[in-house]
């Protein structure tokens, strides 16, 4: 079916408006990060700084330990993403291939668990980590991130497993491959785009997470980057806008860079999988 010219114009207009809506906060953040103090307090703000400066970045690094906090966030996010994917992949295979009541119950629990608010689970979670002596520790935070990312990772990977033709696994079984060998040698390579996408989701979620890190980490040396960003806001709620914008801009770069690097592999792997099937 051919789309009429007015319909195409409407579609492109809606798409452009949506892109502007998504890009506006980030572009304004970048603009603010390079503005000197006199432009930040101007009654007539402009998109492009008239006198761009790097002083906000230098001040941000001088006031707060951004590099150390970024390292803590990187360790926690990367470790949680890897562990979540390693656990979710075999679980997703079982849930997708075995159509039992238990598998359906697991899928239902995954959907329901995503509706739990953070505030509802933070007190019992705090008590559990306290008994395990993992309060105020990066491993404890990693454990929380893994548990929180696992349901969605399981649900996401199960969909990718269902897209893999069962005939490939049946052929491997005829050749004498067991379940583990089939998963590792046949199914897992075809799941590579899904595994990468799931790992990216878990990484970005953990990298940007703030509430759990704020509650569980008390020592400044162990705090993650989102928590350290709040230190640019004074006791009276007045933000040091320039350094805050500069630090927030730097905090968003890892997520953008990671996605830019692997997005072609995700798309290419999905298309390759479609051709193979």
UniProtKB/TrEMBL annotation:
The chain crosses the membrane at residues 12-34, 74-96, 108-129, 141-161, 182-207, 244-262. It comes from the Bacteria. Keywords: Cell membrane, Membrane, Transmembrane, Transmembrane helix, Transport. InterPro entries: BP-dep_ABC_trans_perm, MetI-like, MetI-like_sf. Residues 70-262 form the ABC transmembrane type-1 domain. It is a multi-pass membrane protein. Pfam families: BPD_transp_1 (PF00528). It is found in: Cell membrane. Its main location: membrane. Belongs to the binding-protein-dependent transport system permease family. This is Carbohydrate ABC transporter permease.
